[in-house]
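Ex. 9. Protein: Cytochrome P450.
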Amino acid sequence: MTAGTLPALYGEDFAADPGRHYEQLRLQGPLARVEIAPGAEAVLVTDYQAALDVLRDTHTFSKDPRPWPDTIPEDSPVRSVLAYRPSVVFSDGDTHARHRKVIGESLGLLGPHLLQNQVADAAATLIGRFAAAGSADLVTGYARQVPLRVFNTWFGVPDAEGEVLADRLASMFASGADAQSATAELNEMIGALVADRRRRPQRDLTSYFLQHPAGLDDAEAVMQIAVTFSGGYEFTANLIANTLLHMLADPRYDGSVYAGAMTAHEAINEVLWRNPPQSTSSGYYVRYDTTFHGVALEAGQLVLVSYAAANGQSSPGGATDAWGASESAHLAWSAGPHSCPARQPALLIAISAVEQLTSRLCDMRLGRPATTLPWRPGPFQRSLTTLPVHFTPWAPKPPPPAEE
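Predicted structure tokens for Cytochrome P450:
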């Protein structure tokens, strides 16, 4: 099979039903050659155990693409995700540990109670905007807005600039024609923020990153902030939207997202298994010629792990059905040294956002059949473009006068 005839992990057909494509790929074995954009080839891991082995094996696989020939076309949209940058995503060993420590320890300064209050405040404001209308788009009007407001507060980004950042992030992860220019604009905006905080430190994550004992230089700081903001925001926004769709379309809820059979946490766990917001990893590179799970790999070959395809295997851990398995067994947070460092705050934001919405608008129903909803194209994210709903109009109670 030659380039151009490989299975494509992009386009409307793939976005409409990636599960069907993953099933076909698994027939080829644990690894399959695919095209992730026109002219851009990779080896995709679809087997659960093989995926774990890639994610954990730092001796065979590297995250740094620089030692190897660049096989991605210069104008390819997937460069926005795969091109090297001095960040935690593209580093190994001590450099990776240093960058990851900055992110983990800075995020650790965020108290869960404060975070829940921030989500509740953002949710109340957003719901108040559309509650009286009896209809809303839960992607643009809620799922993408709640984490954006929280992340803006964390990093000290003005709301107006945060909206621009969110737009650039959507373009970057969709791997469209403007992905590279969106990435450049994103880095430029964060660079301006870093320069400002060098001069005027504040009580925000941007300043914490800069003041960390690891001593990040400006380029490193921009990249770690970009990775944390972009990855955390996109993952959380998509998780909220995918969970709301799951609850609205699942017959177990019997038309009511509030009085359904599962809690928000349980619904989120099912989504992380069935429809993970980040469907595919960033790049891993083979360090030397080897045979891996019966497949010959060459040094420098680009390997991607499909979290969605690996999770789709029944009973990955044994006899237990995947959907009832432990929430720690799915691969939505990745695994190994490059597992998500923002798992707990992302999960807390998503749970709180879903609970806030479903407790207020408990009779929401889909505005169109779930099977006709459009998804953003691209191999890396599983992201709705719209989620229209109808519900009984509701007027939020205004706050009491100040003297009360």
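Check your answer against this statement. The chain has one domain: 12-390.
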